[in-house]
Amino acid sequence: SSGINAEYGGVGAAELSVIDQELARIDQELAQFERRNPQAAAAATTSEGRTNENNKTLDDVQGRQKFNVDPKKGIESLIASGLLNDTPEDIASFLYKGGRITKTKIGEYLGENKNPRELCL
Length: 121
Description:
The chain is mainly α. It contains seven helices and no strands.
């Protein structure tokens, strides 16, 4: 747990617990879906395209969750996974249209960035 705290800049145990609970909920939903739709689940695991799509979705969810903990690391995660281009326009679009990200963290991200090029809204 201390390694995780260091990675997220000293995020509190309560915040990490909320993230863990959300990931557990997502895992439960996925398991329920797979039980109700065994053919779809089998197709998703045997098809490389579907598996890659599932990985992108997971990367997207995790990137947004990271953003809600540490906005800068969340943006970096989305860029690293190829889900967000490292351009001011794309970052601005993500901040404007991004679902499941908190407005407080958007403000925190904008307030941290001193480079006017990064604030291209």
